[in-house]
Amino acid sequence: MDFLFNAVLNTFSSTALAVVAALLLDRWLGEPQSWHPLIWFGQWVDRCRLAWQLPIGASKSLQRLHGVLAWSIAVLPWLMVLTLLLWVLPNGLEWIAGTVLLYFTIGWQSLREHAIAIAEPLHEQDLPAARQAVGRIVSRDTSELNETQIAKASMESVLENGSDAIFAPIFWFVLLGPFGALLYRLSNTLDAMWGYKTPQLLHFGWCAARVDDFLNYVPARCVVLTYAVLGNVKRALYCAWHQGRGWKSPNAGPVMAAGAGALQVSLGGSAVYFGAIQVRPVLGEGPEPVVNDLDQAVRLVDKGVLLWALLIVLVM
After folding, report:
1. Is 42 helix (H, G, I), strand (E, B) or coil?
2. How far apart, in Å, are the Cα atoms of 66 and each of 45, 50, 59, 204, 206?
3. CA dist., res. 167 & res. 28, Å (int)
4. What pTM was estimated for this model as a whole?
5. Which residue in 44, 86, 180, 250 is a FRET match for 293, CA 20 to 30 A apart?
6. How many CA atoms does the CB half-sphere of 17 hold within 13 Å?
7. What is the pLDDT of residues 13-22, one digit of tens each?
């Protein structure tokens, strides 16, 4: 057994081995619920906001400064702990630590489970159950959505979160190891908690939003290429370039536009958020989606994950 284990380590780099092992763990175990470390991190983030956020009447620059300080206090101690842990680990165990950390920072199986929970009732024409399921992953009002609107909201979430929850953590893990994956996941979580343009968070959450935009910029463009080569290449690249730039997020727009173009459907358009209609650009080209297109979006992300894993194994 030792001989076989050493042969595997010699054949693949520790990075490639950790990526493949983490993906297999994620598909096998799924995402831990009650004891996921990000739950504890979220509680820590809430304390940091309580301690450092100023009243909205404070100046914009002072609110932003406190947001930077809160971001640093929320994230940097955990990166320091990880760096110390990796330093004291015996030689040869780095890939195990990397596997475990990457497993906790990706959400491939969780994304699939959420999408399937929407698709199954849609296939059975059970719209109330589908609306309830899609309401767990999107922030828009889902109470009156029809089949097409449910499929559209679900596909947008699957395509965008394919980048945020799977490909971006892998990208930073390959580039910077466990440190990169942890930095990305904590930053992305902070953006999800503080990055809203509400009066309370517009300036305090400015740092969290900008850091997340920076960390997602290159991975999102890699995902655009991934969706393109696995679907309609010409339409995916055209939509990402011409439509994605008009989206409110500089990274989500190109990713969703590329996915819609690759699958040849139309996403975006008007949607109700918090009781108000938001007119959003159209992404992609083709008919509006139905439940079968949601199935195709899940398969597109799955094929992208397999392609990335294969390339990492071959290149590294």
Report:
1. helix
2. 14, 11, 11, 7, 10
3. 18
4. 0.92
5. 250
6. 17
7. 789 999 999 9
